[in-house]
Write a structure and sequence with these properties.
Chain lengths: 467, 467, 467
């Protein structure tokens, strides 16, 4: 196992040759990671990563879901039941993973893990039943070495900035700890993720609202206080280096309510007397409010609707959220976002990055919107779509309508810190392959392609996410 | 006309070279045909195929529809009016077909028929107005030869197993005849296709239910008897070698009704007093019941919703069903199947293969579901999508999310027995081309690709359909 | 800047070689332009084109929208406010355009403008900040020369026929002027575009209906008079050389109303008392009426639904329609068109070309319909989809189901007269590339590909649009 220098580049020799040159030029650029789920504590505390299973298997729902689909219960892969740590032994989990390595052929998980094992950890053998124990031992030893601690890797990965995803109530102590640590020069910034505070359909919304007020030092028991608390918490994120918010709801609805109606529904929802339709209307109203606040405080708004979260009830009740059964549904942006864009779409301070896991809307809705509104950017292929072939389709469907400069740049969206370089490396290779094709088809010059490749890898995400 | 050995393989020379090696390795593997519409009587009775028109034109609605779209009435192509045999002469039908051969350029029908004519029947000339009569005569003579009878071809085609599609009331006499014939060793198995007995919106549903009861030797006049009759008929299919059911409805809805409500609606529907909404709710309930029964008897459930059947009323009234005007609509699986998957999705005995003619749902819904549920498989590209380029898109959109081992393997879905080898040959070529690309892009090794190609061609469909 | 002779041809050398031969054979064929928005006055009056900005920037909403998305107000690009000519100076507009040239990399606008500048106007430099003034001067001088007047270019472009888009009330004086001009031999024909007269939801519909009556010399104040007026105006278009109608509505609904109900809703809508649902029902009824009239008068019906027009209210109120913010939504044809196709789908005189900006429906709905109904053709990729990669996807998804001979041939749909050759050139290159792939994959012979390429470029659109 040693990843080939030409991997993911187009097969056609003349195209590959151009792609190789383009990639050589961007391979070493710093990584901008504006959207992901690494815990700031990983860097603040700088503890060694544990064993191979807890590094590569258990927390990665791309991996656990596909092994689960072969009939292996999630608890055997170390997934906690009702928050109780799993009794599965790391070595056993790792063995199961190695036995199922074949399943991942053709998937991005295979690609990322292979790159990560080889490039980050220097592993030279494929996972397989007969290599499982040796790999486990070798990796465990490697992980214990000081140069494989998170902060050392942060430097080695050449990370320009890393955004985490955070609860609006968070004091952001870890981020502040990093900022105040004189021995640390990296940039780790929070992202404001308020879903559970905006949607009265969320479990424990009334409780969340109350706690939000506490965190802001305000009484959020009335609508004005609630709005103030949100504004105050956003200000705290801004003060701690945050540049963006992140929103994932059942749909992209954004119709605002008249103020009196918003207040009435808020009160009813807190009291538990709002109808489901009212709760949904309030959530859409709050998306509009978030846009309004972004015009004021400049936080870049990220939106990724239309996934049914926690789809399999029995697994959700046993294992909790983010355990591999969030399933997409058809997305709609054009009608849903019209109220918001009518109000804020041309506001000079507003910025909205639209992500989808329904690729139909790339050419049909998102690119047409981003090609008119100065505020709207086409979010990179994400989640189920951050794969080599889907990233290709993204460029092929979106560039035609909107060029390169209305797209967001790659986001790795990962919980797996050590996979960050592999993910950005893959995205850069795909972009260079796409640009090389345009060169070979005489649609742009190689100089233009080279500049564009550099912009896509660094300048564009830095600019779009205000980094 | 002699099909090129490299046909359908990718153009890039290095990719083609790998694809050629992969294909050489699987070209001769036995054919697994788990889903199709060949009549078991073809093999049980082993009569010679008739003339070229009734072999290649009249029964193939892919062919007749495209000639119809040029303004040729279906009756001139031999399609029966109200079940009365057409008065069109086979030679005249064949001439019309040859005159319209140009229309099929780029379509899979062109590819299949060309392969079939050359590889099965040794024809060396293209269909054309000036070759029509000679081809008709040559093919007619060939079809009369003993080595072109169905059983001889079954052996020559190297069919490991052939599934037919059957009415739940069928005694399956032809299948039994084959099983009991000591001179016959092939495997021809029935598939349980109960649509017309599950959906009270079907024409003649009350009559169908009564006849179902008769076939089961039970009174299906009450709900309990109806359910028992279905279970009894499934048992008969299992006893006759069946391994699967097949379901095509207007949507994939699967919400079960409470028992008392199911009973009430059943009674109302039999009496003709159920509302359309109640009839639809009952049909969805029965899909859930089919899943429940599959957990018990192990029949693999195949589902392919979202086609408007018999779209053109005048043609339906004149020619009946399956005459080329079933038109797809947008498909939805995520929400529709949730009730069913909540109940049975992780049942160790349950298996559900999801087909679509709306390719949007491959990456958006079906692959995400099959990547979590041990019971769910991504059905192969089917019907309007079993074409070279759509099969490529299938692998490109599905593999990224779910790999190769959660897909079903190819299904030919054909009424045309003699086209079976050509269809599987095409699918194997496309799969080898896709795998070769992954090799040349250094995403998997050639050894892995070779093993995967073999698994896709044989081991996977054999396993998925419990053959 | 000199467009490469191989541009847009596939990268693979053997495929490119075939594509080159196919393209050489069709590059010089006359251009059939059956659908576009050039004003007939351009040719009737034959005035020189003005300056570069008013030729290439201001009227092209593909261009202005993408520069607007960088934050440049539309008025700075010369877009008129409330119909008042913009005060922006052409040279300043041109400078802004040149500064933003980089944005267009990878887009069809870049491709078309580059081809147009080089091939039509002999420009050898790229637009850029430091070339802006020189290019402006050079282009201005060129545009003043007699050989760059519209009629001279019409001949040089080798236009077989050019269809415009016209108001049903238009006397078509410019078309008649051209027909009656003995010095003019070109064919410029009108297209009947009645949206604003069919949809009671349109602003000023009652006023439009009254004026329609005036133009027909009839009283359109009752339903019978309104229908007669439409028939009379269609007859006027037929008499002036028109061969087609063009329809763009919010959806493709076509359910006819019973005559008495149609009359009742018409009267209520005129009186302003119809409900929104009634107005929509009437619009769908009128689509069915248009089909009925097409059966009588032979005008080819073009339909392109599912775009939200004038999406951004503030821009619409300031700048009016067609200013770059029409945004697509999901399209549906199967259910919507069933009533219409049941009645007229097999009528020997009826012809319906279906366009979409939602590419999902190509393989799911439009190709299946066009593969059965003699009246239905798959409209070429259009608007947001008339781009190199989308045109490729079109052939890849549509040909499989329906071959080449149920597609419409390319339509340029442009307001920019001088871009017509570049657009058809691009389409021919993509078609030749697609056909070359089929040859290299041994799916069709090169002779067949050559004939098909010629048919796609000329014979097919000539036949489909009855030219």
């Amino acid at each position: 196992m040693s990843p080939h220098p030409d991997r993911l580049l187009p097969a056609d020799p003349s195209t590959r040759e151009v792609a190789r040159r383009l990639f050589a030029d961007v391979a070493g650029l710093p990584i901008v990671s504006p959207h992901g789920h690494v815990d700031a504590a990983v860097l603040a505390e700088d503890q060694p990563f544990g064993d191979p299973a807890s590094l590569l298997v258990t927390p990665d729902h791309y991996v656990t879901r596909l092994i689960h689909a072969q009939g292996v219960p999630l608890e055997r892969l170390g997934v906690a039941i009702s928050g109780e740590p799993s009794s599965a032994k790391p070595r056993d989990i790792w063995r199961i993973f190695c036995e199922h390595w074949k399943l991942f052929r053709g998937t991005p998980s295979r690609y990322w893990i292979e790159s990560e094992l080889a490039d980050v950890f220097g592993i030279e053998q494929d996972p397989a039943p007969d290599t499982a124990d040796a790999l486990f031992d070798e990796l465990s030893a490697t992980l214990a070495a000081p140069e494989f601690r998170p902060r050392a890797l942060f430097g080695r990965f050449n990370l320009y900035a890393l955004a985490t995803t955070d609860d609006p109530r968070s004091a952001l102590a870890q981020h502040r700890h990093l900022t105040e640590d004189p021995s640390w020069t990296g940039r780790v910034i929070p992202t404001f993720r308020p879903d559970a505070y905006l949607d009265p359909n969320s479990p424990r919304w009334p409780e969340n609202v109350a706690l939000l007020g506490v965190s802001a030092g305000l009484d959020a028991g009335d609508y004005a206080g609630y709005i103030s608390a949100l504004e105050q918490r956003r200000a705290h994120f801004v003060a701690t280096g945050g540049t963006a918010t992140d929103h994932g709801h059942a749909d992209a609805g954004s119709e605002p309510l008249p103020p009196a109606e918003a207040e009435r529904v808020f009160t009813a929802a807190l009291a538990g007397t709002a109808t489901p339709a009212e709760r949904t209307a309030f959530r859409r109203h709050m998306l509009s409010e978030m846009a309004r606040m972004s015009c004021d405080d400049g936080l870049v708004m990220q939106l990724h609707p239309s996934v049914l979260r926690n789809y399999h009830g029995p697994a959700y009740r046993k294992f909790g959220p983010d355990t591999g059964h969030d399933i997409p549904v058809a997305a709609e942006f054009t009608r849903s976002l019209r109220p918001l864009l009518e109000r804020y779409g041309t506001h000079p301070n507003f910025r909205l990055v639209l992500f989808t896991v329904d690729e139909d809307v790339w050419s049909r809705e998102i690119a047409p919107l981003a090609g008119f509104y100065p505020s709207v950017y086409v979010g990179a292929p994400w989640w189920y779509l951050d794969t080599p072939d889907a990233m290709r389709r993204f460029r092929e469907t979106v560039t035609d309508t909107v060029g390169f400069y209305r797209t967001s740049g790659f986001v790795d969206d990962t919980r797996a810190f050590c996979s960050i370089p592999a993910r950005h490396d893959a995205a850069r290779r795909i972009d260079c392959g796409h640009l090389a094709r345009l060169v070979v088809e005489h649609r742009i010059t190689e100089d233009e392609a080279a500049e564009t490749a550099r912009d896509l890898a660094f300048a564009i995400p830095k600019e779009v996410f205000r980094l």
